Amino acid sequence: MAVFRNITIGQYVPGDSLVHRLDPRTKILVTLFLVVGLFFIDSFSGYGIAAVLIGLAIATSTISPRFIFRGLRPVIAIVILTFVLNSFMTEGDPIWQLGFLVLTKEGLFRGSMLALRLILLIVGTSVLTLTTSPIALTDGLESLLKPGKKIGVPAHELAMMMTIALRFIPTLLEEAEKIMKAQMARGADFESGNLIQRAKSLLPLLVPLFVSAFRRADELAIAMEARCYRGGEGRTKMNLLLFRPADYLILSGSGLLIIYLAWAF
């Protein structure tokens, strides 16, 4: 159950920091630059500079770093598995060998790089969702996708679906935790046994969770219809998006820096 509480994806922490006040399009584009740039960086020094940039964003957002890094706990097993598999399955100069397992110098480098990339990707994208409300995120995505309407891209619908999916992650995790507590009160055991046994014990959790998800989706559809929601055509916005000098400065500076890191490192 602690695993569910540690997932921070989709959560929003209200605030009045510089990062909170930025235009959502700026934060989305900067996050996109970061994600793409991290796949081109191929050195520890480049990742170090990217980590410093993410650290500055976290410090400016006034959100507790402990809260942000808590979101790494559910995926720490994936990070470790990525490191181990690449360390022992990459050919190169052997450092240590045990039977058919061969640890290579190149494998250690590749495994460390990929593990660090995963960590930076998760932390960097968490800053976006934690400092941007679902409504602002929807408006920002719709505005960025709007040019695609000329070729038939349903910008409003895509933005709405992506934001609803992101918003419902913490809701469904909270529902899963409630179901687990109810089943544990009836004698279910989710914490003992090996990994396979613990995975099997989670199967009875899936059916009520899916039923709850469909029920919430139906309630959301009824609520949207009751408010006369008919898509994005003709809809007006209470808060209009507007790029400010800080947005232009951060967007251009971060974009140029990420391009430089991807090219130089």
Give your account of this protein's structure.
This protein is mostly helical and 265 residues long. 69% of the residues lie in helices and 3% in strands. The protein has a two-stranded antiparallel ribbon. The longest helix is centred in the middle third of the chain and has 31 residues, at 155-185.
List keywords for this structure.
single chain, 69% helix, 12 helices, mainly alpha, 265 residues, 3% strand, 2 domains
Helix content: 55-70%
Task: Sketch the major β-sheet.
Answer: 2 strands, antiparallel
Oligomer: single chain
Estimate the strand proportion.
under 5%
Number of strands: 2
Our Rg estimate from Cα atoms comes to 22 Å
> What overall geometry do the principal axes of the alpha carbons give?
globular
Average residue pLDDT? 81
In whole angstroms, how far apart are the ends? 40 Å
Q: Uncertain segments of ≥5 residues (pLDDT<50)?
A: none
Count of structural domains: 2
Fold blueprint:
Elements: H1 2-6, H2 18-21, H3 24-38, H4 44-61, H5 65-70, H6 76-89, E1 94-98, E2 101-104, H7 105-131, H8 134-145, H9 155-185, H10 195-201, H11 203-226, H12 245-264
Antiparallel strand pairs: 1-2
Helix pairs in contact: 3-7, 3-8, 3-12, 4-7, 6-7, 8-9, 9-11
Quickly describe the structure.
This protein is mainly α and 265 residues long. The protein folds into two domains: 1-132 and 244-265, no CATH class; 157-234, no CATH class.
